[in-house]
Amino acid sequence: MKYIDEYRDSVAAQKLARAIRRITTRPWTIMEICGGQTHAIVKFGLDKLLPEAITLVHGPGCPVCVTPLELIDRALHIAARPEVIFCSFGDMLRVPGSVSDLFSIKAQGADVRIVYSPLDTLKIARENPNKQVVFFGVGFETTAPATAMAVYQAKQAGLTNFSLLVSHVLVPPAMEAILSSPANRVQAFLAAGHVCTVMGFTEYEPLVEKYRVPIVVTGFEPLDILQGIYMAVQQLESGKHELENQYARAVSRQGNLPAQALIGKVFHVVHRKWRGIGEIPRSGLALTEDYQIFDAETRFQVGQLHAEESGECIAGLVLRGIKKPYECPAFGKRCTPEKPLGAPMVSSEGACAAYYLYHRSVEELR
Question: What is the mean pLDDT of residues 19-40?
Answer without folding.
Answer: 96
